[in-house]
C-alpha cells in the first residue's frame, strides 16, 4: 500500500491540542520532544525542514553529543508512534535532501484549511467573506498546541499562529459590524477584550457595537476601562483611533466601522 493510501483518511489538527485522527479513531500522539518534532513538521507541511533547523528547534544551545544521531532517533520514535496507530503510517515522515517532511496532502492539516478559507481574496460581498472566516475559525478547537509546549514552539511558531487567528477574528467582527449585526456581537467582543486586554482593535469594535446599539454609557465605560488599564499597566495612552472614537461618541455623532 502506498503512502498516499495509508494516510488518505488522516486528519491532523494543530489549532488546539495536537490531534491525529484516522476517520473517527483518535491516535495517541507523541509527547515531549517527539511531539514538538511532529508539530513542527505539521505546521510546515509541504516544506522540507532542514536537519539544522530541527536540531536548533529541539535542543537550542543545549545540544546532545551527537545531534544528528539524536534527531534520527527522535524521527524513528515518531514513525514508530504513527505505526502503532496504523501499520505503515510512519512512512509519511520522509527524509529528503538535508531534512525531513511530511508526505501528506497539505489540506490534511487543519492549519492549511484555515488559511485557505481566511486568506481568500476579499469576496465581492461582506456576507460571503464573513462566512468564509466563520468556517475558518470554526476549525479552532482550543489553545494552539497547548499539550506540546516547548521553547521551539513558543519562541515564534505559536505566537505567529495565534496572531493569524486574532487577525481573522478582527476581520470577521469588522465584516459583521458592516452587516449591521452589532447587537449580536457585543457578548463575543466582551469575551475577546477580557481575554486579549491590550488588543485595541477589539475595544474599538466593542465600543462601536455598544454605541450603535444605543448603549452610549456602556461604550464610554469601555473606553475608560481600556484607558485606565493601558495607563496603569503599560504606561501608554490609548491609540489615536480609540481616542477619536471616544470623542465622536461624546459628540453623539455617527460612528463608522472600527
Automatic annotation (TrEMBL):
Domain of life: Bacteria
Alphabetized PANTHER family for the sequence: TRANSCRIPTIONAL REGULATOR REDD, TRANSCRIPTIONAL REGULATOR REDD-RELATED
GO biological process: phosphorelay signal transduction system; regulation of DNA-templated transcription
GO molecular function annotation: DNA binding
Listed Pfam families: BTAD, Trans_reg_C
Annotated coiled-coil segments of the chain: none
Family: Belongs to the AfsR/DnrI/RedD regulatory family.
Keywords (A to Z) from UniProt: DNA-binding, Transcription, Transcription regulation
SUPFAM superfamilies hit by this protein: C-terminal effector domain of the bipartite response regulators, TPR-like
OmpR/PhoB-type domain residues: 24-102
Residues annotated as domain Bacterial transcriptional activator: 109-250
Organism ancestry: Bacteria, Bacillati, Actinomycetota, Actinomycetes, Propionibacteriales
Native species: Kribbella albertanoniae
Keyword Transcription regulation on entry: yes
Name of protein: AfsR/SARP family transcriptional regulator
Amino acid at each position: 500500500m502506498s503512502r498516499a493510501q495509508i494516510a488518505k483518511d488522516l486528519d491532523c489538527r494543530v489549532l488546539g491540542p495536537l490531534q491525529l485522527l484516522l476517520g473517527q479513531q483518535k491516535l495517541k500522539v507523541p509527547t515531549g520532544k517527539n511531539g514538538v518534532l511532529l508539530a513542527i513538521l505539521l505546521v510546515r507541511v509541504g516544506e522540507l525542514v532542514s536537519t539544522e533547523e530541527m536540531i536548533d528547534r529541539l535542543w537550542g544551545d543545549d545540544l546532545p553529543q551527537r545531534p544528528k544521531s539524536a534527531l534520527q532517533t527522535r524521527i524513528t520514535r515518531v514513525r514508530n508512534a504513527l505505526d502503532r496507530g496504523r501499520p505503515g503510517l510512519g512512512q509519511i515522515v520522509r527524509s529528503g535532501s538535508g531534512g525531513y517532511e511530511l508526505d501528506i496532502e497539505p489540506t490534511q492539516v487543519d492549519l492549511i484549511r484555515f488559511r485557505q478559507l481566511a486568506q481568500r481574496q476579499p469576496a465581492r460581498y461582506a456576507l460571503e467573506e464573513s462566512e468564509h472566516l466563520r468556517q475558518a475559525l470554526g476549525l479552532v478547537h482550543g489553545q494552539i498546541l497547548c499539550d506540546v509546549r516547548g521553547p521551539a514552539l513558543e519562541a515564534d511558531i505559536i505566537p505567529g499562529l495565534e496572531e493569524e487567528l486574532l487577525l481573522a477574528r478582527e476581520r470577521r467582527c469588522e465584516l459583521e459590524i458592516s452587516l449591521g449585526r452589532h447587537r449580536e456581537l457585543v457578548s463575543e467582543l466582551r469575551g475577546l477584550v477580557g481575554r486579549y486586554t491590550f488588543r485595541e482593535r477589539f475595544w474599538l469594535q466593542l465600543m462601536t457595537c455598544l454605541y450603535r446599539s444605543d448603549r452610549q454609557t456602556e461604550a464610554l465605560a469601555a473606553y475608560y476601562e481600556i484607558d485606565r488599564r493601558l495607563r496603569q499597566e503599560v504606561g501608554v495612552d490609548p491609540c489615536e483611533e480609540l481616542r477619536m472614537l471616544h470623542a465622536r461618541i461624546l459628540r453623539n455623532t455617527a460612528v463608522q466601522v472600527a
